[in-house]
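Appendix B, record 7
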Amino acid sequence: MTSEEDLKEAIAFYREALQLLNECGEAYLLGGAFAIRHHTGIFRNTKDLDVFCKPSQYTRILKFFADKGYRVELTDSRWLAKVYKDDYFIDVIFNSVSNICTVDDSWYQHAVNANYEDIPVKIIAPEELVWCKSYVQNRERYDGADVNHLLLRCGKEMDWKRLFARLDQHWHLLLDKLILFQFTYPGDYRDIIPQWLFDELIKRAQEQYAIPASTEKVCLGPLIDNTQYRTDVVEWNYKVFTIKTI
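Structure tokens (predicted):
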């Protein structure tokens, strides 16, 4: 099968899946490659579609597709399920693997209206995309380029206070992304990144040196890569950040 035929089959499946999702009646949002394309214009061919919903919704979505004859799978009860048709599938995402970026009503309130192949859909706002992608920094996948492109194309209209609130707990990650953006686009960051935000983050970084170090040996690495910091926890006796559960 040619890549063009493969793409046509994928699009046909996505249209079918979205029509069924609309028929199902459960609210959902599109993320992944489609959201990146909508916000940045960057196209990536993919064999899956990322569908986001609240944790209370995914069981009803899976049951609906199962009743229609699709193969469904609860891949990871913390955050991910799947719906399959031949070589194609949709990811039903309701959280992040660390249980930090839990989908809730606010995601729907800030969603963006769009169309996929003439089917009305709502897609994740750039602020939530940046929030989620800031935690994807593992060996197999690193979403830093996606964050850079989102900031470049959407930053001037972005709600920076809302993004700051999303990442307030782990503000180091936001500072990391802003410095990476400055490095990547040295001629653009002044018109995009608010100086008040950068100044606040730098102030926090400086103030850390005025307080004593933690009495516990803590490694937050597993929040951004849940495999590569195993040695820190198992052999070097670092404590893992307490992760909330659903």
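Remarks on this record: Residues 27 and 230 are 37 Å apart (CA to CA). The mean pLDDT is 93.
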